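User: Could you go from structure to sequence for me? I need the amino acid at each position, not a summary. Structure tokens:
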């Protein structure tokens, strides 16, 4: 998953997903958390790098938490 935001993300898929397809995305918070969630989304665009998806519900809790944890993490070298 790339370009993660409160409204959606860009992701790669092994499947040829059609526009407006409803999908479920499994998200896991990084260690030490063991929290995971399955979020509903729909395919909003297809690009060379993958598919753009929009969350069915704006700003799911686990996405907000994942973005917060990324802000707290030191940049990788």
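Assistant: Here is the amino acid at each position, in order:
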């Amino acid at each position: 998953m790339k370009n993660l935001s409160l409204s959606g993300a860009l992701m790669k898929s092994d499947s040829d997903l059609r526009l407006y397809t409803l999908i479920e995305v499994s998200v896991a918070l990084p260690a030490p958390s063991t929290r995971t969630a399955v979020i509903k989304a729909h395919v909003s665009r297809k690009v060379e790098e993958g598919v753009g998806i929009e969350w069915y519900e704006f700003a799911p809790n686990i996405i907000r938490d994942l973005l917060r944890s990324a802000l707290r993490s030191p940049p990788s070298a």
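One structural detail worth keeping in mind: The chain has a mean pLDDT of 90.
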